[in-house]
Predict the 3D structure of the following.
Amino acid sequence: MKAIWKRELQSYFYTPVGYVFVGVFLLVSSILFFLTILQQHSGDLPTFIGQMSYLWMLLSPVLTMRLLAEERQRKTDQLLLTSPVSLTGIVTGKFLAAATVLLATAGLTLVYAAVVGVYGQVFPGELTVNYLGFILQGCAFTAMDMYLSGCAATPVSAAVLGFGANFLLWMIDMLRDQISVKWIAEGLAFLSLYNRNEAFLMGQMSPAGMIYEISFTILFLAMTVYHLENRRNPLGGGGQDGRWKRCGIRTGILVFMIAALAAVNICMTTLEKDKGWRMDYSFNGITTQSETTREVLKELKDPVHIYALFPKGQEDAPLMELLDRYAAASPLITWEQSDPGLNPALVTRFSTKTESVTGDSLIVYCEKTGRWRILSPAEFISLSMDPETGTYSYAGYTYERAITSALVYVTREEIPRITIIQGHGELDGETLQAFTDLMTRNHYEVIFRNLAESEYEPDPAELIAFFSPMRDISEVEMEKLQRFTEAGGCMLITCDYSDPVGEMPNYRSLLRSYGFLPREGIVVAEAEDSSHYYNNIRIDLIPEMLSTDVTMDLVASGANTVLMPGSRAFETPGGTDRNLMVFPVLQSGEKAYLKQLSPDMTSIEKTAGDPSGPFTLALQAQRVTAGGYVSRAFLCGSSGMMTEEQIYAMTDAQQLILRMTEHLTGQSGSNLEIMGKSAVRPALSARGNGMGSVIVTVMPLAVLMAAAIVLLRRKNR
């Protein structure tokens, strides 16, 4: 076998075949590297490696076409077949020679990874898994094309057969998504080399994928040995009975091998899926579950079924892999893929007046509680905003946080409710869409009610929210609110600088019951105090977050930046009685001033008589009622901080709102502390263009020069 391997390996580089294979491979991969990495300044090596893997389909026949077909064409195959070396040794030696060239070529492409490593960042674990799948796939194609070389009469026909078979595998893989018969589609996916390689390209170490591609390689090598054995012993010796006996034994062994390999792969694929055996080496650990998720799954008591609404062929691969991880981690989690276009009954079942099911979503459903949560694509990503340009970009993937939070929501016994009061000129549902979306995403129930409705009596277990009312509360409504707060009900209130609080005695009385005393005017930052206002707009304040029992950890962790456009000030709490405690939460800079509004005002510049800061811009309070209950409230002087999506994206306002809401309701929604996964790889430095361009040019030329030197020297001998 060693002699065969050495002879075949030398022949690759004593003839143009090896240089053609390596040269063309490097030429095409260099072009791909330039287009996908250098030109885009991207560090996305997995995508580049995935594109390179298609070169096996195109070039593997070049590597294998002469291995056996040339022996047959030159009539030297009989000498080979009758040599003392076993057919297994012959086939293995030839395959190892081709695999050596393949590995050497793959090794040369590591130069591309080195360029990314120098001018960007390479993730070694992910790169190793990517290349493992890349090489195993190449070996599988090589083994299959070598078998076809043994079936062909000439190297040219072997190349045509190999390319045709490779192309057919690719076409079948593409067509499987169009096949409606489930078991056929699943069978083709199970057999597909391309489908198996997807896990490796995602940075997932797949034991089942490794075993399948190794089995694929072994099977075709065994079939090559079987084919050559039939050619060496067409009559078998011992007469007709001997021929059939020997043929039967060989065929039986091959059939047994096929059955054994199929059984092993089916078993391994099933176990990998059920037990979650894949290991995540992706750069962002996108399918790795956090300790929080593991604790949630451990405490899960009720079965939950997840519908993944994706048409065939349009799946979100990382999301599908993560769902497998959830199902493997808990026997109470099951999931299935469903095409919403083919299953309208499912869409209708889970659609409501306020929420409809769309494609590319998940439905997380618990039959016992009858509760479900629809997770749209927008909930799987987090955005960041560039404050200078005002543009948004993807910051991270939040698959795990969204799914785990939904599991908690659909299985919990009680859902905290926020009731937004209407009927007094408050902000309407459209203006409050960002706030209601935030609360809903974090699994609070949000409803809108009118206090004037005779049948509505606020429940102390719910949180009542007033968003900048413009008209006063009636006496009847005031009595309802007094009963609500006396029983321990809590309130969330915004009060903008333009709200006519002075004309609303009942509403003002409600605020005073918590120690909240609004001041007239708008808070303006001094021009030189630029750290306390945003983008040269001096009424868009960046306040200081003070440390309270609610905000302490936000301040300590640095998540304390919020933006308050057009803010009202409040009296700083002084001495209060033992039943009432009031604490400032947000405070303006010391150089701020309070500008009184008037119809003829033409400037916000400070004038004589304007009070100077600092001013209290938000407060929290708690009051012990006569019945011994504790009623809490939070007041914010800027509704914009609470309701604007842009402020959510560029500041820590969401964290403050959620933390304060948990404090007021006395229970959390499902805002689990699960970090998002990075969505963006480190970019390639612009300096990499020059060196990278030199390398992608030099590598194919170096192969061409080596070919010229070696082949010319041999020609002149």
In short: The first strand starts at residue 204 and ends at 205. The two ends are 29 Å apart (CA to CA). The mean pLDDT is 87. The chain has three domains: 2-282+687-715, 284-413, 417-520+541-586+614-680.
